[in-house]
Amino acid sequence: MSNPQLTAASFLSRSVEDEQRRFAQEAERLAEQAARIAANPPNGQRTASGDLTRLIAEATYLLKRAVTIEAGLEAVGLMGAETATTKK
User: Fold this and answer.
1) Contact, 19 vs 69, CB < 8 A?
2) How confident is the model at residue 4, as a pLDDT?
3) DSSP labels for 19-39?
4) What's the pLDDT at 9?
5) Looking at residue 88, what is its pLDDT?
6) Cα separation of 9 and 81, whole Å?
7) Which terminal CB of the chain, N or C, has fewer other CB atoms within 10 Å?
8) pLDDT values of the chain reduced to their tens digit, one per residue, 88 residues
9) Which sign does the torsion angle of CA 8, 9, 14, 16 carry?
């Protein structure tokens, strides 16, 4: 059984796929956290502004990761196009 050749494009592609999986898990966790907050109004120990600040910070982090994932997908596509061009 032969191993496929590991190229920069295949390595980056796997890395982006892993990051997409982690991103989906964290987005789901953030949605669950938002639902918990919505179901449990603030009390003396917790404030609405604190809850919103935490949710906004986590959502901002996820958006930054989404941009990084998109850039990785674009890079994989460009590497694939370059490989196809050089093989001709």
Assistant:
1) yes
2) 59
3) HHHHHHHHHHHHHHHHHHHHH
4) 84
5) 61
6) 10
7) N
8) 445 567 888 899 999 999 999 999 999 999 999 999 999 888 878 888 999 999 999 999 999 999 999 999 999 999 887 766 776 6
9) positive
Q: What's at 34, amino acid-wise?
A: A
Structure tokens at 77: 């596509």
Distance of CA 82 to the CA centre of its chain: 25
Helix 48-87 crosses helix 8-39 at what angle (to 10 degrees)? 160
At 11, which amino acid appears? F
The residue written with tokens 């986590």 in the block is 58
- For residue 34 the two structure tokens come to 């938002």
CA pair distance 82, 77, nearest whole angstrom:
9
